[in-house]
Amino acid sequence: ETVTMAFLIEMLGCTNLNKELDCALEIFPTYLKSQCPEMPRLVLRGILTLSERPDMAKKSLVLLPVVMEQLEHGDGGASDMVLPVLTNMLQLLEGKESSRTALALADKLWWLFNDESGTVRQLFIDLFRNTMWLLAGAKRKKMKEVVWDSLLLLLFHLYDED
Question: Where is the Maestro/Maestro-like HEAT-repeats domain positioned along the sequence (predicted)?
Fold first, then answer.
């Protein structure tokens, strides 16, 4: 299965994949939940590729709930792959949907500011720095409150490291 998935992921770099793309979008949620430790990272790499291609990025948004779920379950090994995917996907969302999703992420994933991996912490900070600009008014204020509370945890974590 892993070899087949790796081949499919490599194919995503090709052009004219309409039929294959639909197939990939159908099977990716199943393989994100695979017990094989390499499989979710491989699938996330494929989703990242899709989210970076202008001709396929919008179609990849159907996977947003599954990608968010992957991160919510605390799979720290995949966090460094999930966060860039979420960053790309949030930038593709429009209007109220981007605001609602960004706030949902802030409320559910604040614990990533305290992650052991400096890379994950930095990716999470970047995600919220980028999404802060998508929000306006009361939603932006709410996001700032969540981020400030989370930054306090990060400060304590960094202080403990010293």
Answer: 32-162
Those residues with Cβ within 8 angstroms of residue 83's Cβ, 6 or more apart along the chain or in another chain: 71, 112, 120, 123, 124, 126, 127
Question: What is the pTM for the complete model shown?
Answer: 0.78
Q: How far apart are CA 105 and CA 19, in angstroms?
A: 32
The candidate with the shortest Cα–Cα distance to 70, out of 105, 100, 119, is 105
Task: Provide DSSP, 25-78.
Answer: HHHHHHHHT-SSTHHHHHHHHHHHHHHH-TTTHHHHGGGHHHHHHHHHTT-GGG
Distance CA 134, CA 104 (A): 14
Within 10 angstroms of residue 138's Cβ, the number of other Cβ atoms is 9
User: Which regions of the chain are under pLDDT 70?
Assistant: 15, 73-77, 113-114, 136, 157-158, 160-162
List of residues 6+ apart from 120 with CB closer than 8 A: 76, 79, 80, 83, 112
Q: How many helices (H) and strands (E) does the chain have?
A: 9, 0
Q: Cα–chain-centroid distance for residue 49?
A: 12
